[in-house]
Write a structure and sequence with these properties.
Length: 283
Protein backbone atom coordinates (compact mmCIF):
# COMPACT_ATOMS: atom_id res chain seq x y z
CA UNK A 1 0.00 0.00 0.00
CA UNK A 2 2.92 2.32 0.72
CA UNK A 3 4.23 1.96 -2.86
CA UNK A 4 0.75 2.67 -4.17
CA UNK A 5 0.43 5.82 -2.08
CA UNK A 6 3.81 7.11 -3.25
CA UNK A 7 2.97 6.43 -6.86
CA UNK A 8 -0.36 8.24 -6.48
CA UNK A 9 1.46 11.27 -5.09
CA UNK A 10 3.88 11.22 -8.04
CA UNK A 11 1.04 10.95 -10.54
CA UNK A 12 -0.93 13.74 -8.90
CA UNK A 13 2.04 16.04 -9.14
CA UNK A 14 2.57 15.18 -12.78
CA UNK A 15 -1.11 15.36 -13.77
CA UNK A 16 -3.04 17.51 -11.29
CA UNK A 17 -6.24 17.07 -13.29
CA UNK A 18 -6.45 13.47 -12.12
CA UNK A 19 -6.26 14.38 -8.41
CA UNK A 20 -9.87 13.69 -7.46
CA UNK A 21 -10.14 10.33 -9.18
CA UNK A 22 -6.75 9.19 -7.88
CA UNK A 23 -7.76 9.99 -4.30
CA UNK A 24 -10.94 8.00 -4.80
CA UNK A 25 -8.93 5.09 -6.21
CA UNK A 26 -6.61 5.08 -3.22
CA UNK A 27 -9.48 5.00 -0.73
CA UNK A 28 -11.24 2.12 -2.50
CA UNK A 29 -8.03 0.11 -2.82
CA UNK A 30 -7.25 0.62 0.85
CA UNK A 31 -10.62 -0.80 1.87
CA UNK A 32 -10.26 -3.74 -0.51
CA UNK A 33 -6.83 -4.54 0.90
CA UNK A 34 -8.17 -4.36 4.45
CA UNK A 35 -10.79 -7.06 3.95
CA UNK A 36 -8.45 -9.33 1.99
CA UNK A 37 -6.75 -10.62 5.13
CA UNK A 38 -9.95 -12.01 6.67
CA UNK A 39 -11.79 -13.38 3.67
CA UNK A 40 -13.54 -16.71 3.99
CA UNK A 41 -13.55 -18.34 0.58
CA UNK A 42 -14.65 -21.91 -0.15
CA UNK A 43 -11.99 -24.00 -1.86
CA UNK A 44 -12.47 -24.50 -5.60
CA UNK A 45 -12.31 -28.14 -6.66
CA UNK A 46 -11.30 -28.99 -10.18
CA UNK A 47 -11.63 -32.53 -11.49
CA UNK A 48 -8.24 -33.72 -12.72
CA UNK A 49 -9.49 -35.35 -15.89
CA UNK A 50 -11.50 -32.24 -16.71
CA UNK A 51 -8.57 -29.97 -16.18
CA UNK A 52 -6.48 -31.66 -18.83
CA UNK A 53 -9.35 -31.73 -21.28
CA UNK A 54 -10.20 -28.07 -20.71
CA UNK A 55 -6.62 -26.94 -21.29
CA UNK A 56 -6.32 -29.10 -24.39
CA UNK A 57 -9.51 -27.73 -25.89
CA UNK A 58 -8.65 -24.13 -25.01
CA UNK A 59 -11.39 -23.69 -22.39
CA UNK A 60 -10.88 -21.69 -19.22
CA UNK A 61 -10.74 -23.55 -15.88
CA UNK A 62 -13.96 -22.09 -14.50
CA UNK A 63 -16.74 -19.66 -15.43
CA UNK A 64 -17.10 -16.22 -13.92
CA UNK A 65 -20.16 -17.24 -11.91
CA UNK A 66 -18.32 -20.19 -10.36
CA UNK A 67 -16.01 -18.05 -8.23
CA UNK A 68 -16.83 -18.54 -4.54
CA UNK A 69 -17.56 -15.28 -2.71
CA UNK A 70 -17.40 -14.16 0.88
CA UNK A 71 -20.83 -12.55 0.81
CA UNK A 72 -20.68 -11.09 4.29
CA UNK A 73 -17.41 -9.33 3.53
CA UNK A 74 -18.73 -8.19 0.14
CA UNK A 75 -21.87 -6.66 1.68
CA UNK A 76 -19.76 -4.83 4.26
CA UNK A 77 -17.41 -3.58 1.55
CA UNK A 78 -20.37 -2.43 -0.55
CA UNK A 79 -21.53 -0.16 2.27
CA UNK A 80 -18.02 1.18 2.83
CA UNK A 81 -17.62 1.92 -0.88
CA UNK A 82 -20.95 3.76 -0.87
CA UNK A 83 -19.63 5.90 1.95
CA UNK A 84 -16.43 6.70 0.06
CA UNK A 85 -18.32 7.29 -3.18
CA UNK A 86 -20.66 9.75 -1.51
CA UNK A 87 -17.72 12.02 -0.82
CA UNK A 88 -16.01 11.44 -4.18
CA UNK A 89 -18.10 13.60 -6.50
CA UNK A 90 -21.66 14.95 -6.79
CA UNK A 91 -22.71 12.53 -9.53
CA UNK A 92 -21.61 9.50 -7.53
CA UNK A 93 -23.23 10.95 -4.39
CA UNK A 94 -26.57 11.31 -6.16
CA UNK A 95 -26.44 7.77 -7.51
CA UNK A 96 -25.48 6.31 -4.16
CA UNK A 97 -28.37 8.07 -2.47
CA UNK A 98 -30.80 6.37 -4.86
CA UNK A 99 -29.07 3.00 -4.57
CA UNK A 100 -29.03 3.07 -0.78
CA UNK A 101 -32.68 4.02 -0.64
CA UNK A 102 -33.58 0.96 -2.73
CA UNK A 103 -31.37 -1.29 -0.59
CA UNK A 104 -32.63 0.09 2.74
CA UNK A 105 -36.27 -0.27 1.67
CA UNK A 106 -35.52 -3.84 0.60
CA UNK A 107 -36.53 -3.16 -2.96
CA UNK A 108 -33.20 -4.68 -3.90
CA UNK A 109 -31.77 -7.80 -2.31
CA UNK A 110 -28.14 -6.79 -2.06
CA UNK A 111 -26.92 -10.25 -1.06
CA UNK A 112 -28.59 -11.88 -3.99
CA UNK A 113 -27.28 -9.24 -6.33
CA UNK A 114 -23.71 -9.61 -5.13
CA UNK A 115 -23.97 -13.38 -5.43
CA UNK A 116 -24.96 -13.00 -9.05
CA UNK A 117 -22.62 -10.06 -9.47
CA UNK A 118 -20.51 -11.83 -12.00
CA UNK A 119 -23.05 -11.25 -14.72
CA UNK A 120 -23.11 -7.69 -15.94
CA UNK A 121 -26.45 -8.17 -17.66
CA UNK A 122 -28.23 -8.87 -14.37
CA UNK A 123 -26.81 -5.75 -12.74
CA UNK A 124 -27.65 -3.64 -15.74
CA UNK A 125 -31.26 -4.82 -15.65
CA UNK A 126 -31.62 -3.77 -12.02
CA UNK A 127 -29.97 -0.42 -12.80
CA UNK A 128 -32.45 0.12 -15.62
CA UNK A 129 -35.44 -0.79 -13.47
CA UNK A 130 -34.47 1.61 -10.69
CA UNK A 131 -32.98 4.26 -12.99
CA UNK A 132 -29.50 4.10 -11.50
CA UNK A 133 -26.48 5.06 -13.53
CA UNK A 134 -25.44 1.63 -14.85
CA UNK A 135 -21.73 2.31 -14.67
CA UNK A 136 -21.79 3.59 -11.10
CA UNK A 137 -23.91 0.67 -9.91
CA UNK A 138 -21.78 -1.90 -11.71
CA UNK A 139 -18.68 -0.27 -10.29
CA UNK A 140 -19.93 -0.63 -6.71
CA UNK A 141 -21.03 -4.24 -7.14
CA UNK A 142 -17.89 -5.36 -8.90
CA UNK A 143 -15.52 -3.62 -6.55
CA UNK A 144 -17.33 -5.17 -3.58
CA UNK A 145 -16.72 -8.70 -4.83
CA UNK A 146 -13.27 -8.04 -6.32
CA UNK A 147 -11.28 -9.21 -3.26
CA UNK A 148 -13.17 -12.54 -3.28
CA UNK A 149 -12.61 -12.96 -7.01
CA UNK A 150 -8.90 -12.35 -6.65
CA UNK A 151 -8.68 -14.80 -3.76
CA UNK A 152 -10.35 -17.40 -6.00
CA UNK A 153 -7.91 -16.63 -8.78
CA UNK A 154 -5.00 -17.09 -6.36
CA UNK A 155 -6.33 -20.56 -5.54
CA UNK A 156 -6.22 -21.50 -9.21
CA UNK A 157 -3.02 -19.71 -10.16
CA UNK A 158 -0.87 -22.84 -10.12
CA UNK A 159 -3.41 -24.75 -12.23
CA UNK A 160 -2.90 -22.55 -15.30
CA UNK A 161 0.21 -22.19 -17.42
CA UNK A 162 0.74 -18.47 -17.79
CA UNK A 163 3.62 -18.84 -20.26
CA UNK A 164 2.09 -21.39 -22.63
CA UNK A 165 -1.58 -20.36 -22.91
CA UNK A 166 -0.94 -17.55 -25.46
CA UNK A 167 -4.64 -16.90 -26.14
CA UNK A 168 -6.61 -13.64 -26.14
CA UNK A 169 -8.76 -14.64 -23.14
CA UNK A 170 -8.01 -15.61 -19.55
CA UNK A 171 -7.04 -19.28 -18.95
CA UNK A 172 -8.69 -19.16 -15.53
CA UNK A 173 -12.07 -17.49 -16.16
CA UNK A 174 -12.28 -16.93 -19.92
CA UNK A 175 -12.67 -13.14 -19.72
CA UNK A 176 -11.06 -10.70 -22.15
CA UNK A 177 -8.02 -8.69 -21.01
CA UNK A 178 -8.33 -5.15 -19.69
CA UNK A 179 -4.69 -4.20 -20.23
CA UNK A 180 -1.46 -5.42 -21.71
CA UNK A 181 1.91 -5.25 -19.94
CA UNK A 182 5.51 -5.42 -21.15
CA UNK A 183 7.97 -7.00 -18.74
CA UNK A 184 11.52 -8.22 -18.37
CA UNK A 185 14.62 -7.30 -20.31
CA UNK A 186 13.30 -8.46 -23.65
CA UNK A 187 9.87 -6.98 -23.05
CA UNK A 188 7.73 -10.11 -22.95
CA UNK A 189 4.10 -9.21 -23.37
CA UNK A 190 1.40 -10.22 -20.88
CA UNK A 191 -2.35 -9.66 -20.74
CA UNK A 192 -4.20 -8.82 -17.55
CA UNK A 193 -7.65 -10.38 -17.04
CA UNK A 194 -10.46 -7.84 -16.76
CA UNK A 195 -12.30 -10.02 -14.24
CA UNK A 196 -9.96 -12.13 -12.05
CA UNK A 197 -6.73 -10.15 -12.71
CA UNK A 198 -4.67 -13.16 -13.72
CA UNK A 199 -1.73 -12.40 -16.03
CA UNK A 200 -0.68 -14.58 -18.94
CA UNK A 201 1.84 -14.27 -21.71
CA UNK A 202 1.04 -13.62 -25.37
CA UNK A 203 3.06 -12.83 -28.49
CA UNK A 204 4.24 -9.27 -28.94
CA UNK A 205 2.41 -8.71 -32.23
CA UNK A 206 -1.09 -9.96 -31.52
CA UNK A 207 -4.61 -8.56 -31.17
CA UNK A 208 -6.28 -10.40 -28.27
CA UNK A 209 -9.75 -9.53 -29.55
CA UNK A 210 -9.58 -10.96 -33.08
CA UNK A 211 -6.30 -12.94 -33.00
CA UNK A 212 -4.78 -10.78 -35.74
CA UNK A 213 -0.99 -11.29 -35.99
CA UNK A 214 -0.20 -9.25 -39.10
CA UNK A 215 2.39 -6.56 -38.50
CA UNK A 216 0.87 -4.30 -41.16
CA UNK A 217 -2.53 -3.97 -39.50
CA UNK A 218 -1.37 -3.67 -35.89
CA UNK A 219 -0.22 -0.17 -35.02
CA UNK A 220 0.42 1.70 -31.82
CA UNK A 221 0.88 5.23 -30.57
CA UNK A 222 2.19 6.79 -27.36
CA UNK A 223 1.31 10.06 -25.68
CA UNK A 224 3.85 12.85 -26.05
CA UNK A 225 6.75 12.15 -23.74
CA UNK A 226 4.93 9.10 -22.38
CA UNK A 227 6.78 6.08 -23.75
CA UNK A 228 5.66 4.14 -20.69
CA UNK A 229 2.15 3.84 -22.06
CA UNK A 230 0.98 2.99 -25.51
CA UNK A 231 -2.26 2.27 -27.25
CA UNK A 232 -2.22 -0.84 -29.43
CA UNK A 233 -4.68 -0.51 -32.30
CA UNK A 234 -5.97 -3.29 -34.49
CA UNK A 235 -7.04 -2.20 -37.95
CA UNK A 236 -8.90 -5.44 -38.52
CA UNK A 237 -11.40 -5.31 -35.63
CA UNK A 238 -10.98 -1.60 -34.77
CA UNK A 239 -10.54 -2.40 -31.10
CA UNK A 240 -7.63 -1.29 -28.95
CA UNK A 241 -5.85 -2.23 -25.76
CA UNK A 242 -3.64 -0.06 -23.58
CA UNK A 243 -0.14 -1.35 -22.92
CA UNK A 244 1.91 -0.41 -19.88
CA UNK A 245 5.65 -0.80 -20.10
CA UNK A 246 6.68 -2.17 -16.73
CA UNK A 247 10.31 -2.14 -17.81
CA UNK A 248 10.12 1.59 -17.20
CA UNK A 249 7.83 1.72 -14.17
CA UNK A 250 8.43 -1.42 -12.18
CA UNK A 251 6.15 -2.52 -9.36
CA UNK A 252 3.35 -0.32 -10.54
CA UNK A 253 -0.34 -1.09 -10.22
CA UNK A 254 -1.51 -1.39 -13.84
CA UNK A 255 -5.04 -0.24 -13.00
CA UNK A 256 -3.71 2.90 -11.40
CA UNK A 257 -1.50 3.66 -14.41
CA UNK A 258 -4.49 3.04 -16.65
CA UNK A 259 -6.60 5.44 -14.68
CA UNK A 260 -3.96 8.16 -14.84
CA UNK A 261 -3.78 7.93 -18.64
CA UNK A 262 -7.42 8.23 -19.64
CA UNK A 263 -6.37 11.00 -22.04
CA UNK A 264 -4.82 8.27 -24.24
CA UNK A 265 -8.17 6.49 -24.36
CA UNK A 266 -9.79 9.70 -25.57
CA UNK A 267 -7.22 9.91 -28.38
CA UNK A 268 -7.86 6.30 -29.39
CA UNK A 269 -11.63 6.85 -29.41
CA UNK A 270 -11.15 9.98 -31.51
CA UNK A 271 -9.26 7.89 -34.05
CA UNK A 272 -12.31 5.63 -34.28
CA UNK A 273 -11.25 2.71 -32.09
CA UNK A 274 -13.14 1.09 -29.22
CA UNK A 275 -12.00 -0.51 -25.99
CA UNK A 276 -13.95 -3.72 -25.26
CA UNK A 277 -13.16 -3.54 -21.54
CA UNK A 278 -13.20 0.17 -20.63
CA UNK A 279 -11.58 1.40 -17.46
CA UNK A 280 -14.34 0.96 -14.86
CA UNK A 281 -13.24 4.09 -13.01
CA UNK A 282 -13.91 6.42 -15.88
CA UNK A 283 -17.42 7.84 -16.17
ZN1 LIG B 1 -9.64 -14.22 -15.48
ZN1 LIG C 1 -8.23 -7.12 -33.72
Amino acid sequence: METLKNRIEQLKEKRPGYGEILDFYQKVREEQEKIKTNLKIEPIHLKKEWKELLAKEGFSLIQKEEFPLDIKASVALFHTLCQIGKEANPHMAEQIKKIREAVDNRKIDLKELLEGGETEEGIELVAEEFKFDKKAFLFLIQNSIQPSIEAGMEQLRSEADSEAWLKGYCPICGSPPSLSILKGEVGKRYLLCSFCRYEWRVERVFCPFCNNKEHGSLQYFCGEGEETYRIDLCEKCHLYIKTIDQRIIEESDPHLEDLATLHLDLLAIKKGYKRPTPNPWSN
